[in-house]
Amino acid sequence: LDLIEDKSIDLVLTSPPYNVGKNYENHNDLMPYDEYLNWLSKVFSKIYLKLKDDGRFVLNISSVFCDGEYKPLFIDAVNICRNIGFKIRNDIIWNKNQISKRTAWGSFANPSDPNVLQPYEYIFVFNKNLKKHIGNKENIDITKEEFIKFTNALWEIKPENRKEILDVCPAPFPEELVYRVVKLFTYVNDVVMDPFGGSGTVSKVCAELKRKSIYIDNSKRAFDFAIKRVKMVFDVKNI
Q1: Strand, helix or coil at 159?
Q2: Closest to 19 (Cα-Cα) out of 5, 37, 41
Q3: Where are the alpha helices (DSSP H) in 96-209?
Q4: CB neighbour burial string for 58-88, b if at least 16 within 10 angstroms, e if fewer
Q5: pLDDT grade, residue 100 (50/70/90)?
Q6: CB of 36 within 8 A of CB of 67?
Q7: Measured between alpha carbons, how far is 11 from 173 in angstroms, rounded to an integer?
Q8: More confident call, 109 vs 145
Q9: What does the longest C-alpha to C-alpha distance in the chain come to?
Q10: Which terminus of the chain has fewer Cβ atoms in its 10 Å neighbourhood, N or C?
Q11: Contact 160, 171 (CB under 8 A)
């Protein structure tokens, strides 16, 4: 992130590791919770510097179980962003329509200690300094039908489940989610950055939608996979 020019990014769309023990190649996903929040704060502070004054930060985050108890990570993440200077403008519920196999119920059929599963995550939209994102009308490519659909804050999108992608990144974005965010919040030729780039879904969709993208990840394997996906987009376009 330090290599990116300040105030050069139109949109940051990302989802950081949730600190739940996922098998990332070069990241400890089981930090003490306070240490993890401090780490997030450092990353989000740098994101703030890189965004243009009229840029947006779109953050996918959830609640988690950490240190043996429920943690409202989404609340802590929003508070971190607000303390940095971001202004929250929207929240979206991503309904994944998926509940993992039940291995624990808490107290089954008993009110003493039931567990409640959450088949959804949050997507928060933040402004930096300006509410309106400035661009040329000729670079607007969202249709009326898409705008009406995407501005309903309940998004029913199935998670990414392709094995070749999950093998590279244990928690990848589905392409439909990225498509909606990019179409709704950017113009053609805008610069979109994902500092937790993973399998490269943000860059792939940006290539398809004629946006520029900046991909960052600390896994060379993930980077090579992301480059391959983006190159395939341009190869198809050139046929």
Answers
A1: coil
A2: 37
A3: 144-150, 163-166, 175-185, 201-208
A4: bbbbbbbebeeeebebbebbbebbeebebee
A5: low
A6: no
A7: 16
A8: 145
A9: 62
A10: C
A11: no
As a whole number of angstroms, the distance between CA 196 and CA 151 comes to: 25
Both tokens assigned to 92 = 């979206």
Cβ atoms 74, 61 nearer than 8 A:
yes
Torsion, Cα of 183, 15, 123, 52 (10° steps): -60
> In what order do the strands lie in the sheet containing 154-156?
154-156, 87-95, 120-127, 51-61, 9-14, 191-194, 212-215
- CA–CA gap between residue 230 and residue 204 (Å, rounded): 5
pTM for the whole structure = 0.93
What is the enclosing helix (H) or strand (E) of 187?
Answer: none
For the stretch 37-56, pLDDT in tens is 999 999 999 999 999 999 99
Contact 57, 81 (CB under 8 A): yes
Half-sphere exposure of 56 (CA within 13 A, CB side): 24
Does residue 223 register a pLDDT over 80? yes
Name the amino acid, one letter, at 183.
Answer: K
Query: Per-residue confidence at 237, pLDDT binned at 50, 70, 90?
Result: low
